[in-house]
Amino acid sequence: MPSFTIDVIGSGFVGQATGKGFLSKGHRVRFADVDQEKLTYLQGQGLAAFTPEELAEQPERAQISVLTVNTPTRGGAIDLTAIRRAAADLGQRLAGEEAYHVVVVRSTVVPGTTEELTKIIEEYSGKRVGKDFGICMNPEFLRERVAEQDFAHPWLILIGEYDTRSGDTLARVYADFDCPVHRVSLREAEFQKYVHNLFNAVKITFFNEMREIARSQGFKADDVFALVAKSAEGMWNPEYGIRDFGPFDGSCLPKDTQAFLAWAEQQGKAASLVAATIALNDELTLRATQPKQVSKRVARAVGAVAS
Length: 307
Description:
Blueprint: E1 5-9, H1 13-24, E2 28-32, H2 36-44, E3 49-50, H3 52-56, E4 64-67, E5 73-74, E6 77-78, H4 81-94, E7 101-105, H5 113-125, E8 133-137, H6 147-152, E9 157-161, H7 164-173, E10 181-185, H8 186-217, H9 221-231, H10 233-236, H11 253-266, H12 272-289, H13 296-306
Parallel strand pairs: 1-2, 1-4, 2-3, 4-7, 7-8, 9-10
Antiparallel strand pairs: 5-6, 8-9
Helix pairs in contact: 4-5, 12-13
């Protein structure tokens, strides 16, 4: 397997797990961050860690730069300030290089962001994507408490690629990892990461809602949920619900969701997520049969969830 010099830009838990994971596979890794405390911690472990200014002064040039910069939410929207700054800084460093370089966005970013960062890199480097450098979006699937173990033993690797050359280069970096590698477009990779996280969020919220109802009735929620994990096809069949079969219908799901919602409301419980599920399914059904109609139930359910 060929080895690369890799700059990991942003040294939080994702950057550290990523860099240490690549080190374990024989790559040379340099960490960069604006937080001196993080750099001191990494340096104390014998790792190469620099400020962006110090990194620019290093004589050796990397073939890969991985952006693992924080992308926080502020005012209900993603704040791309830090990663835009990192892209501009990277573009300046690439300005004087002649060798082909691959930029890898590993931060969680909304669809279209990687393309925006590409334009920033082009502006500050004077180079052109697809000719002078490549770009990929490589979402991370790391749990914070066990991030290093998750990186070392991934269940899948997803490469969103600008072009085949970009994807091929990153695939070689991951050549020694024993798991499936999937390749999609840049925007599909960005979108996949959010679908991944949102599914987890919705599942947690659903069982929290059911737990509140169970407690109000004196039911043993943990015992019930453990049985649901074994009985519900949506839990044990990874293909269930993801195929394009349209809204749920049939003899069970429509009537049972409505019956449970009515019963929960009689017990003084709102079951807002169940209500929103019914309303959205009704809206999808209406769109399929009567596209110009708008479901009032959707507006009521969404308003109830938001409040």
